[in-house]
Automatic annotation (TrEMBL):
PANTHER family the record matches: 2-DEHYDRO-3-DEOXYGLUCONOKINASE_2-DEHYDRO-3-DEOXYGALACTONOKINASE, SUGAR KINASE
InterPro entries, sorted: Carb_kinase_PfkB-like, PfkB_dom, Ribokinase-like
Protein name, entry field: Sugar kinase
The organism's place on the tree of life at top rank: Bacteria
Molecular function terms, GO-annotated: kinase activity
Organism of this sequence: Stenotrophomonas bentonitica
Key words of the record: Kinase, Transferase
Family matches, as CDD domains: KdgK (cd01166)
Domain annotation Carbohydrate kinase PfkB: ranges: 1-315
Family recorded in the similarity comment: Belongs to the carbohydrate kinase PfkB family.
Amino acid sequence: MSRVVCFGELLLRMSAPGRELLLQSPQLAVHAGGAEANVGVSLAHLGHAVAAVSTVPANPLGEYAVGELRRHGVDTAAVRRTEGRMGLYFLTTGAVQRASEVVYDRADSAFANSSAADYDWDTLLTGADWLHLSGVSPALNPAMAQATLAAARAACARGVKVSFDGNFRPSLWARWQGDAPGILRELFACADLVFADYRDIGVVLGGEFGQADVHERVDAAAAQAFAAFPRLQWMACTQRTPHSVDTHSLGAMLIGRDGTRAVAPTREMIGIVDRIGGGDAFAAGILHGMMRGFAPDKIVRFGLAAGCLKHSIPGDFNPVSEADIMALTGEERFDVRR
Ligand code: KDG
């Protein structure tokens, strides 16, 4: 069992029922989420000691989100309560001829209004093996960019490994015209493991990776990332090819600075129920495989199976066990309707 600290915003997801348009009928389903929290919940179900570091409003919405994390085994003692509002997002699930849509309503949330001075990393990182961060928090505003950098630097300085999921959200960066490449570069520089594909590396380092086969583009991006960031040891990513609104194929790669190159066979996913949080479930699966000392091939197959399993579960969380995921690692076709 490892000790993992996840720093990021807890959000509430408000989704239209089934395939309805948003507010087509006066009902919304509520789920707790947030990219880093999703990773934390998965890791807690996989047997790790996970602590969430965040800020929520001192009101029933904030308490609901914290309660959901606690219910899934995450330590929430370091979640601050302040004045302010809860970050929300509204989801309309896609259907034939219509893509899914996310509307953020999170500006000026209690978390977004917190700052580096609110988090004492000396205490928060005591005993931690890993700190997990994502590109969502620094995209919120300049203070959160600094707070995320402070967390990453504190972990680096204390020998705590940093896992960073690029999670590039152009709409959030655009709101304050933040220097996404500059800030993400500083975060990548602190990371031991990044979840990023060639498009993310293109944002961070500039440059194109041509029209080559997707695996070759990832190889080229990884080579560039390892050259630019001496601390970085691992880069992991999925490759998704959509076929329809509820069918796609998903593959994954794990590349190491030491020349390791593990590719998980592509899975055909049929009857997708909910793909939000699939990337977070993948990230948790990769982290779990690393913490358990699996061989690289097994790590990437496990990560991909974890991500695929999430597609069968409504909500942002993937509350499944190692055995649930292991049961899928041999399957290349994953029909969630079975
Ligand atoms: O990765 C899933 C997240 O997208 C979801 O939980 C909400 O954190 C979120 C975000 O910023 O979109």
